[in-house]
Amino acid sequence: MSELENHSQNEEEFATALLTPWVKGKVSVDDNFLRMNIPNTILFNLIPAGKRSNKTPISTISNISSSTKYKLPRMIIGAIIVIIGFSMLSSSAFAALIAMILGVFIVGSGIQTIFEYENMGNSKQLEFPFYEANHVSTFVEHVSGIVEKHYMDANN
Fold this sequence. Notes:
Elements: H1 3-6, E1 9-15, E2 24-30, E3 33-42, E4 47-57, E5 61-70, H2 72-87, H3 93-109, E6 111-119, E7 122-129, H4 133-155
Antiparallel strand pairs: 1-2, 2-3, 3-4, 5-6, 6-7
Helix pairs in contact: 2-3
């Protein structure tokens, strides 16, 4: 069996936010469809609020990629909170520590790994925390292999 034939089905769970790693989204791919079930969140990705589901035929998928995205406003707000935390050290060490930790998490949430593909000319993106980068990259390779196999089979 070839390597592409071994990759006929795959389901992955990804954390959807840095501050809430227990909130997971599922993305799966098989020889026919790419399926997504991702929770929507509000308030800095802290509170799950509904979900986003999608089922895309493999035959309509092209340009699969992953990348890193930086949300500068969020990172700047986080850096300001860290600086405020440092300035609070002399008055309240506990409050300063909480502010600094929160600021670091907000800065980290501004760095995201993107899973992106085109579906009939429309770009679709899924955002994940930066620490999911290797996981997303592996999934991109898997999806690319299945799409490649589909197009090779269609051309024969």
